[in-house]
Amino acid sequence: MNKTAFPKEIMAICIAALLTLPNIAVADDIEVAAEIGSIPPEILNVSKLRDNGDTENISALDPEVEYLIKFTVRDNNSLADLDTILVRVYESTQSDQPVNKRRVYNFTYNETANAWTASPSGYLNPSHTSTVPDNKSQVSFSFDLYFKLAGIAVPTGSTTNWIVSILVTDEDESTDLNDSTTFDVNEYRALNSYTASFTWSGKNPGDILENRTINPTITANLQVDINTNGSDLTYGAYSIPVSSFHVYNSTGPLRTLSSSTLTVYDNYAEASDSINPNITGYTDAVEKTLKYDGAIPNPQHSGTYDGTWTISLADIINPA
Ligand SMILES: [Ca+2]
Ligand SMILES: [Ca+2]
Ligand SMILES: [Ca+2]
Ligand SMILES: [Ca+2]
Known about the structure:
The protein is mainly beta. The protein is built from one helix and 23 strands.
């Protein structure tokens, strides 16, 4: 037997095995992935209210005056991952109510637009511009939001408050909420835009003085008394006593003018609401009519007599 000779069957198997060896590659792709989690946004360092001179810790805000709130937002997916920041400023019992300048204000930062908007309009950026980030690849930014409230914003007192609620939402709809800032709204009453003088011309002793109308525009965030004071009209040493004149409101009653305060409209509010238990309503830029008339005494020395009368607003109520 030849020991070097393979049996035919074994040789055939070896050839078949050689033919099925894999090709040897010199390069190949590696599929690589790193899954980055969606990180919720955070609100940090919320300031108390500041006035626009940056005085901190304002606890009671005047309507129609600019204020500032500062806060930092961080998102470790970068600021570009933010969707919106909603700063809702509202009387504390009105959180679910629609925006309304009496009670709820929304200030919204939209990351895509990189801009603030406000509803109701007209109360954002009264004299300063609220800040926005100019580099969205940062992870945090300190926002300055400048705003004011309307003259009719409901006043609050020792048992009631307004709240600043800040809600940040990212593109994964993760959120953070901070409503730690509270404040009071002070009483507000303003009277303007009235014709500040009138004259009776060509009169003689004993003449009736036809009525003259003054229409002050009233804005107040609570009920107010609309009052008037008169004074004697004088010409050198001569005078026409204040009691020669009358004042009345749009429906009466006629009252003799006096140097003491007379209430022409008592506890007046154009619109009623009961948000604050002590407040019956408010008046938003409404003209009210006060009329004055009188009679010249007889006899009366000739001359041009003049004097200064006053219209004033007073409140007699403290907000609860
Ligand atoms: Ca995020
Ligand atoms: Ca975004
Ligand atoms: Ca309070
Ligand atoms: Ca009154």
